Amino acid sequence: MTYDPKKHHRRSIRLKGYDYTLPGAYFVTMVTHQHQLLFGDILNGDMALNYVGHIVKAEWLRTSKIRPNVTLDEYVIMPNHLHGIIIITNDEIPVGATSWSPLQTDIQPPHGPAPHSLGAIVAGFKSAVTKQVNRILNTPGAPLWHRNYYDHIIRNEEEWDKIRKYIQTNPSNWETDHENPHAQSL
Fold first, then answer.
1. Mean pLDDT by 10 residues, the chain (186 residues)
2. What structural domains does the chain harbor?
3. What is the pTM for the complete model shown?
């Protein structure tokens, strides 16, 4: 299928005009496809990861190991979503051709996230987790994640502290969490 911008246009929820390759701290939330409870259970206010949840955790931690411009801060994996703080740094990123980016002069502009951007980091993470989970569950091509993700650019220390506290207390607030399909309204 060929990309047609009129037919395949999706409204972006990103901050218009902001360069998501810039160094900074970003709060992200990624939710499972159809809010499926895939990563474990909340037991006595704590998250107990299942096998799939451990795959998510391992890949999340691997994110900063394979990307020299990424540092991870506070995060939590919940039954159907992940909250985390990604820090994009000024660390050097290798420049040059790779086996997956041939040098061509007559190619169309790329679709999707800019290399080394927050979107590229999230897409790489989600793709790696999906491939592993689908291989293990023998569900080739099955969606694991909601197609988008939430982000918030962290602008100061006060905001950072509030977000860290939100992440840390998320499991104990699961009963009223808006991502919980069985949440009790208060």
1. 50 66 95 96 96 98 94 98 95 50 50 80 96 94 94 96 97 93 73
2. 24-92+112-175 (3.30.70.1290)
3. 0.81
